[in-house]
Amino acid sequence: xRYYAGLDVSLAETSVCVVDEEGKILREAKVASxxxxxxxxxxxxxxxxxxxxxxxxxxxxxLCEEMTELGVPNVVCMDARHARAAMVAMTHKxxxxxxxxxxxxxxxxxxxxxxxxxxRTMELRTLLTSRKTLVLKIGDVENQIRGSLCLFGxxxxxxxxxxxxxxxxxxxxxxxxVAAILDVLLQAHSAMxxxxxxxxxxxxxxxxxHAVCRRLMTVPGVGAVVGLTFIAAIEDxxxxxxxxxxxxxxxxxxxxxxxxxxxxxxxxxxxxxxEARAALFExxxxxxxxxxxxxxxxxxATKVAQRQGNKRATVALARKMAVVMHRMxxxxxxxxxxxxxxxxAATA
Length: 348
Hints:
By secondary structure, this protein is an alpha/beta fold. It has three domains: about 5-110, Nucleotidyltransferase, domain 5; about 120-210; about 215-345, no CATH class. It is built from 14 helices and seven strands. A five-stranded mixed beta sheet has the order 3-2-1-4-5. The protein has a two-stranded antiparallel ribbon with strand order 6-7. A hairpin with a 3-residue loop joins strand 1 and strand 2 (about 15-20). Helix 1 (about 35-45) packs across helix 2, helix 5 crosses helix 9 and helix 12 (about 295-310) runs antiparallel to helix 13.
């Protein structure tokens, strides 16, 4: 007899449901969302569990890793989008019913297993997301200050980030109350810039020591941030039998809708790692519009842009860059420029 355990995880408690191979519910309970508590409860069942599954979420990676180390057999992380689609017909959504649904999905095998990243990769991802958060917050503070100055008829104009505070203080010299208010934001702005410098140094140190990242940085438009973001998203290139699969995993391929006589392609799927997709799009934009040296990739993307516009060409180039970067990673090679001249239309 085979047995399956579905875990619907929340921050404080986890709903657990255990079923047999015929779908009969054997045990249900609410257990603290701690790996030790879950491992103890599952071990006390005395059943040879075929699979233990939980949805992707904030705690999923940590619970999978810790429970496996504690001896829980066959712990799998399930794609939450697939689980939601499978249980969308439920009229009553509760944690208990979600755990039942997950257990039945484990029993039937109708789920997609998600790769659980290693702790070192999660540390790298935390560094990159923290850096991005600081960049966004610095922009928010600057925009708030710009908007506040407009209320008094002061147009800040173009100001470099490093001289932003000095410029604001100069323009508000005749408005002491406004200057006192904005000085608080400027102090926070300066503190965040210092913190961003620290994170940037950490990123550069990791990139300098990471051989794969250095090879990926030979691709035009790819810097330390883009290279490390791609590495954190893929983690293990052997997971993909074909390099062209990487574009689909990162959501850079068009949707497909075919039914009867209807057969059309839509926008890109935007599934998978959002950060990696955004980083590749930015790198593709740099290659297409800022990099002066021509390559086969740039020439191909330029022709696509002439036919279908810059935005589609940038997305297509981002997908192609993902494929090329994966192949470089697998082969241990650097980017190869080909002797391609600029198309006549682009140089005219």
